Fold:
Amino acid sequence: MALDLKRWILGTLAACLITAVAGLAGGGHSATAPETLSQRPATRWAAEASRLGNEWRATSQSLRMETYRDELVKPADSARAAGGTAPLLLVDGPSTAAQRAELRGYLGELWHGAAPEGFKVAVALVIDRTTEPSGSKFPPGRPGQSTRYLFPDSLHRDLCVAVVHDEYRAARFFDPRRTQPLGLGRESSWLVQGLGPCAFYGAFGIPSRDVGAWIAGLGHQFAMYPQWWITGNNRFTGWWWDEKLPIARQGIQWWGSLYATLPWAGVACYADRPGSCAAAVYDTSAVSETQPANWDSFQWWREQALFGSPYYLSDLARSLGPNRFSQFWTADVPVDSALHLASGETLDRLTGTWAHRGGLHVRLGPSAPFLDILSGLLPALFAFGAAVWHAGRRQIG
Structure:
């Protein structure tokens, strides 16, 4: 017994000695590793070139957006004076008269349901199809680039511009092999998503200072998908949600998206913690002092307060109706007070009802289903019993 113990101690000491020597040798080698003079400038200048390139692209894109807006100012004034029966359309790139007419028809049909009384702020949709420089002074749009928005400001108070890049379903409108018209179903949902927050500006006007600052502080994520004129609430509960399974049996991918995507206030909202639903959508520390002049929808899904938050304002407008939602949108009081005046309910209660509309209730804390506890304890009890049985049969001495 003593000899075995000595072997274990000596083996452990030898392993520690080998680890220490290897660590010292490796650290000394990496610390004194030579760096050639040609590597330093290459790394430094590459980083500088990348920074300057990003700044140039950002500046060029801003200039492109302003150029679009300048080109649309006069048509917007004319359209608004005529009643604004459809969002303006500008295709920057190759397109035929028939394609543009088809798109205008879809936009007109869409806006008839969204705001049948016309525009309060003119809305313009720009489809950027430029993929090759071809002598243009602007850099071409990159595949996968997000939608960009120019909101009304002090110089352009009556125009909201949305710039959609030619990709995904948008490109199908310009496919020369297409022979059948595309309806207003899923195939053209990108038109609704492309209008984004501009649809709210067009239908309900410029928001009040408090509502506009709230939307600006939270990245316009609640106004991403305007569809208040479409019947039925959105039931989006995550990419991995299986409606056939109860909450306790959802896959690990869904639980990962729950805790990785939502803030803690959002998770607590689904667990019915008082005040958490209001905190998830109205964070006073994130409220901006001013309304935004522009916004980029890049990676909006990583900033969700609750599942389906891009539909939040749209579902709210549908449930309240145009008149009461307009009252909320333009009320010159804090957001929670404005919503209470328009709906008669608190922000926390109204948001909680909306969040649970698909039956999603999360249980937090140590409580777990009985069968899960039993299945986890059985292997441990079996191992403990086997160890006791083996110890009882072993002779010591």
In short: Confidence is low (pLDDT under 50) at residues 22-41.
